[in-house]
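Entry 12.
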Amino acid sequence: MIPSRYGRRSRWLRTPNQPAIAAFLAAVASVAMTAALATPAPQIAPPNCSAEVASINSALQTAHLPALCERCTARLAQTLVSLYANGTLPGFYRSADSANWDDPQRRPAMLSGLSLAHISDGKDFAADIDSGYGPRGVLRLRYTAGNQPIEVTTNDHRVSIPVTYCTSGDTH
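Predicted 3D structure (tokens):
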């Protein structure tokens, strides 16, 4: 406490100086915001598509679904790279119209966009996720008409695992 010449505290010290306090707080806030804006936020690099497929594979196992086979993981990673980088499915996919297989469980080509009954999957499309040999798998990669991946889902759409953006990295 600072005594005045009459033994009492100064009236100025007892009365808060509102404009001075407000100006001080505004200056501190301005400096803090300038420092926050001047420092760029750390950019987190997107995962490579092999890591994204490994994450999807572990989510499938958590949902008590079978894990992806080795060939399936490689094909899914290639598909994600192709969709994100080129906006197209890789060459190993064919539409249901052009596949022309006689046995619906064994087919020579991948299915894309249409069901076995040649019914569209809706506003989004679906591509099989399997090895390309033997019986069809239960997993589908849903993607938009603009060829942006949405999720990995089962053929009955009961389990859906969102797909995050990924880059090519080491997919081969």
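Annotation: Residues 106-110 have pLDDT under 50 and may be disordered. The two ends are 75 Å apart (CA to CA).
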